[in-house]
Amino acid sequence: MNHKSWLGLALLPMLSTAAVAQDVDFSGDLRFGFASFDRDERNGTNIDDSQFNLRVRAGALWTISDVYSVKGRLAATGNDSDFSGDLKFYTELPEGASSIEAGDMTVDELYLRARYGNWDHKVGRFQFSNALVGVPSKSMSRLNSNSWNVSWTDGLHSRFNADNGWQYNFIIEHATEDGPTTVRRAPLNYQSSQSRATYYASIDKSDEDGLFLQRSVDVTIIPSALYYNGVAAGDRTDYVAVSARLGLQWQLPGESRFVAGAEVGHAPDTPTLAAMGLPGLGDSDGNAWQISLNVMDVAPGHSIGLVHGENDAGWLLSTDFTNNQSLTEFRYNWRPMSGHTFQFRLREREDLIQRSSAVRERNEVDYYVRYTISL
Prior knowledge:
By secondary structure, the chain is mainly β. It is about 5% helix and about 55% strand. The two termini are about 35 Å apart.
């Protein structure tokens, strides 16, 4: 049974009931802007390019009762350089991609939700992220639909909201033979049927008014997905990764707050250096970390943030941080009114270790300006 079949079966019982809709709410967002980059490639060439980007999402939430609800959403993305006018509808991400292709669309949410007591369950296709607090909010382990991208999670998500403020999240994520529907980097591979289910769990707490703004620990387990000698060699093992986040805040004069955060991650079993195309013998390192410094509401509606992180070659889960690269980013956010956000980003990314076949390390400097309207 493929992922489209089990998704339909999961929603069928509720969609076929005689319940009358009590409430239908429509939502959506429009994001557009300009992006430019200057990249020194590993082969010695230089690429300088820019483009206008667009992402549109529109959805509806049907509240069936106090317990049950159903949500569906369409998402499309595009830019002025890749759009061909040939609209495609994706049911899964293109192999190895972080998003559907420009000029195409998909259903990025379609789930049944049940909320009762301290429990909150979703089954189907949904969005889930666990990012470090800050203006440039990034994650080492799990992030759907960052920037102009469209991605999602297929599976089951259960959350328990404890009375003391802690949240316990459990996800079973479904992948196809072609791969998952969120970013997972090679040599993770899903040819084995045992690797089609990814298991994720996190413990999180957020205190909007206290010193400890964010506390979070999570673990990701992908059975039989790590081809540590390369996919062609066929040797595989489980990929396990643990990450933790801590965000602190201090009140500044007026309405301003200083927010500092850090995230660290470690994967004990990693691919070999040879499998990653790096010099040397043995296994690649599996560490990842980021530090974020932010001033929130430096003036009403205006916030700035700086983040720096490094991701070893053996850390294969991050959407924001490419493995074997460092990232430094400055971001400015302005919220001129409710539901409107203007952002400016300046970012530099650079290889940590030069690849064996490369003439030099890759280095890229890019920026964007974008505007988002949310309904």
